């Protein structure tokens, strides 16, 4: 396949598959602790995938490659997904996806500070300001209402932002690191993220055995979907993108996923957003689109000069 065809397929998979994983997580955490769900999802999937690579004759990667894959795995499937899983206990899946949609803002800032040093264009800066305004309007930090009475719980929301920063850093750092071949890199990153999630779950969560005993057929199906579709297909497509496509193109999934998550949450879980949340969502998504357009123009101009 041509590069353009691969790019379209990878983007399509990340757009749709990752938008649906918020719903899958929602089903799984109805029974299991959220961090344990991330552990089961990535540790199981990663081990099976790594064994498959050995069976296919890939061999053992060198230590530098393992360290690179572990770092990216902790940032992405570890910190990033643990934050999302935890937040889904307190907010509708579409709203969590919207908070994750701030990813382009973090990528723009981190890319400027630590990587390419490329300044955002005027339209990108306007998008950044609009997006941040939408988030402030959504979170309403000056509202003295108790956490339980808020439309959006502040601590889980801030945790999602922290996870998004880690995800953005890992994505930008990945092309600079020595990594194994893509499929084996995916496996090691999943294992690293799963181990991190296990550690967090053992430290912060309780009653694991009781939760396992309460697992239903729906729980098993949700985990299976998260492992096969969310991790093997969606995560592999994302890793291809961050190593073969410009960061601002990869980041476009951030404003498609909330739309998919909103729709699926409404259909399957009856999740309905308040007028304030809908207005904030529109503002944030407008900002994200402008940020992405601004970054795309910057890269296109740089490529023309080179």
UniProtKB/TrEMBL annotation:
Chief site of localization: membrane
Alphabetized InterPro entries for the sequence: AA-Vitamin_Transporters, EamA_dom, EmrE-like
Residue span, EamA domain: 8-138, 156-292
Keywords on record: Membrane, Transmembrane, Transmembrane helix
Subcellular location(s) of the protein: Membrane
Membrane topology, record value: Multi-pass membrane protein
Pfam family of the protein (one): EamA
Residues spanning the membrane: 7-29, 35-54, 66-88, 94-115, 122-140, 152-170, 182-203, 223-242, 249-268, 274-293
Sequence similarity: Belongs to the EamA transporter family.
Protein name, entry field: EamA family transporter
């Amino acid at each position: 396949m041509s590069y353009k065809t691969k790019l379209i397929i990878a983007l399509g998979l990340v757009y749709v598959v990752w938008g649906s994983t918020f719903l899958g997580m929602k089903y799984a955490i109805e029974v299991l602790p959220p961090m344990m769900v991330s552990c089961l999802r990535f540790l199981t999937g990663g081990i099976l995938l790594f064994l498959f690579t050995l069976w296919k004759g890939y061999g053992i990667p060198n230590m530098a490659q393992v360290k690179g894959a572990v770092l990216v795995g902790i940032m992405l499937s570890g910190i990033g997904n643990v934050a999302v899983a935890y937040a889904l206990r307190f907010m509708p899946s579409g709203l969590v996806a919207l908070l994750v949609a701030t990813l382009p803002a973090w990528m723009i800032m981190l890319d400027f500070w630590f990587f390419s040093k490329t300044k955002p264009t005027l339209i990108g800066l306007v998008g950044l300001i609009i997006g941040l305004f939408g988030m402030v309007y959504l979170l309403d930090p000056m509202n003295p209402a108790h956490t339980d009475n808020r439309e959006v719980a502040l601590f889980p929301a801030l945790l999602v932002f922290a996870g998004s920063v880690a995800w953005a850093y890992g994505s930008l750092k990945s092309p600079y690191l020595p990594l194994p071949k893509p499929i084996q890199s995916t496996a090691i990153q999943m294992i690293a993220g799963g181990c991190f999630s296990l550690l967090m779950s053992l430290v912060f969560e309780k009653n694991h055995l009781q939760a396992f005993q309460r697992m239903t057929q729906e729980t098993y199906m949700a985990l299976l979907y998260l492992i096969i579709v969310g991790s093997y297909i969606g995560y592999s497509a994302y890793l291809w993108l961050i190593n073969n496509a410009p960061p601002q193109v990869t980041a476009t999934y951030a404003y498609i996923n909330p739309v998919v998550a909103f729709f699926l949450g409404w259909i399957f879980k009856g999740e309905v957003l308040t007028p304030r949340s809908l207005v904030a969502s529109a503002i944030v998504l407008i900002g994200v689109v402008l940020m992405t357009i601004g970054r795309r123009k910057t890269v296109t101009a740089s490529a023309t000069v080179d």
